[in-house]
Amino acid sequence: MKLTANRKLRKLIIYAIIAFVGLVSALAIYLWRESQQIYDFSSLKPHADFGEYTGFQPLSGIASHSGMSPAAQNDILTLFIDENNANIAVVDRRNGHVWYSAPPTGQDDPIANPFEKGLMRSLFGFSYYDSRMRLQRQWGYADSAALEQFTIYSVENGVKIVFDVGEMSAGIDMIPKFITSERLEERIVSMLEDNADIRFIRRLFVDTGEIEGFLELPDAVRNHAVNSERVVRIFSEVGYTPEELEADNAAANFEADIVTDYFSVSLYFILEDDTLIMTLPMSEIESEPGNQLVSFEFMRYFGAGTTEEKGYLLVPSGSGALISFNNGKTNEEMFMSAVYGFDPLMVIDRPQITTPVRMPIIGIKKEDAAMIAWIESGAAMATINADISGRNNSFNTAWFSFLIRNEVMLNMIGALSDADMTVLQSQAYEGDIAIHYRFVANEDANFVGMAQAYQRALIERGSLTPLEETGDVPFYLTVLGAVEKQRFIFGTPYIGMEPMTTFAQASDIVQQLNDAGITNINMRWKGWFNRGLNHDVAKDINRINAIGNLTEMRELDEHLRLGGGGLYPAVNFQAVDNNSRRFNSSFEAARDPAGYLGIINVRIGRETMNMRQGIYETGRMILVNPGVLPFHIKSFLYSYESMGIDALALNDLGDLLTGSLYRRHAVDRESSRLIANSQIELLGDNIGSIMVSGGNEYSLQAARHLIDVPLGSDWQYILDYEIPFYQMVVRGFIEYAGMAHNIRQVQDPDFALLNMLAFGASPHYMWTHAPTSLLAHTPFTHFYSTQYRNWIDIAIEQYHTYNAIFQNMGNVGITDFQILHSSGRGRAVTMTEYGNQIRVFVNTTRNDFEADGIFVPSMDYYVEDVAD
User: Looking at the structure, do residues 425 and 440 belong to the same domain, yes or no?
Assistant: First the structure.
């Protein structure tokens, strides 16, 4: 018996030790996780200070306009506000044009229903989840201004409008769920005079037997909009008070859950030169506990075009596109596109290939007036919206909407139920949302004038600096170095390096181009460190010896620099290989609101659907939490200094944008943009020349070269014309090229050359030295057309044709662009004029073009020097 007791004691001791070790281990892991650093980005968030405000006083000495009071004025603009409904109007005194937030004829619109007419008067709208996780929506007019729940204040150069939005009372929650029959008759029914109301109340309160001796107002009644509104009215008329509600609930021993849908929203409208600045400080929003804001939209009908007006909407689809007023395409989808592209963390299925929006702008052209609007703060959360008349109303509109809190739907599958659960981002965006509306008048009132107005804003911000005098145009060459490929040792798979181009082979290619007269070669090198193309986390640098040593790499760089170009080793900072060895995914990876890992699949083609993809095969990349990017980049810079190469190509830092939305270490997408912007500037300060892929607007300040920029629009069916708006903004400040010609889906060298000429974009190719058959059974089979021998002669001919026109014009901007004829789907006759009065006519249609003494053959071009 004693032996048995000792055994039991030993077991208990062992179990206690195991439990203690487990507890200590769990505590150590928790403390370690909590000790992980995340970048403090709070200082990057904008918080505008508008100074003191006072009760609204209209400006003296200025006449009212259409019943609206003058609120602010400068040398160019006058701001008016309607004190009855808070709508605004801006008068551009250069041409007398009035820009209304609510169309003056909107309430007489024969197409719009009452709800749509309410939207026309709303400066804003927002959606939110209430404390019961019901998605609700409120509008500035119907839920505030129409109820006279707003206050106007005067601030310097503008106004502040505070909207009290929603029900100021508790609504149906002010009605007791349980009440005795005696009290209902004595306190409510006895005070009613309308027999219909008496019958209504007696019919709704029923004996359900849930609480003995009490009548109940069923949830079906409480949630019925019409019935609940009538009940609230009746109880309000008899003077039923919150104190009585509390007493009735206490008598029934019932704890009420009172919900109010109340928000306080402050909007600022400030005049600054030729610009109206609208700001929503998120910090000034007040709400009842439990309400969680999801989205906002602003000024949906500001400057809306009517059916009688001629004009167009400008949207940043790809390089830019126009939607003609009243184009009749009401059977097509309205234009919607996320700024800086879709968020790969939130979008799992990608139904169509779209070109990301690189600039957060919209524009409206009307007669001799135009407006260009851009997002100064909050762009990464925004969506561009544009629609034509004839669908829901008689107006052509363009506006911004903002997703300030993300959500995911989780399917809860169990033995007894199958339902979806909404999981929200724990913390919404907390900075300001600011939109600038700049007005363009008279002869500048077109998309060219809009581009110049936006360009001026970027110059004022310091994002664009004019190029100095230039010579031969750059030739952009992306080289594939080493790629990841599955290999085997005694039947065991592993990831090895397949050298597609060595430094010595690249030097040979450069020499062939030099011998053909091409010297200004800017080479982006992909696949040079940390295990290949989709490399390991870029905290430090482990070069791939299979493509050459550091001396050969430096010799290649020197060879390129002697000709005026340079070597740009490429790096991914925001996505790392799925098999990364030095990446702590539990802390450093981006996660969605439900905590799922952010993963993107870079494989393209049918192989993506292969269910037998090996676990050692690459192609999946993990998104990096933006909050750890500064630590990665600081470490990378320390290692990169020893390379002796003063140039770098950013593959994703100016292209891909995502947040990390899980509870711990969450970074919203706008904060991610601010972090990316600050880190790109840091790289630019420490490295002599930066090449940026994609070219999102926040990356322009540090970019010396832009690559893979859009040279055309998405051609959604509602669009009418594509234009080089992006190029009009950046040309003369940053040299750029589009996607490599030889990896496009349609490889037409003639069309590629014409497209370059129309958009002023330099040649760009992607090459390998080794045969591309080596890419079989890798994630990179879509690079099948990169063997340089197949393209070098075409590239040389294209370059010399382009350079003969654009030599010494790198610092010359685009001053005009005209669409002379369009045959649809990207085929048109265009004229691009440059600052040195060179005009380039391009005909990508199947027919010859002749007009005003200009003849351009089909699929050809013509150059005219206006100065001659």
Answer: yes
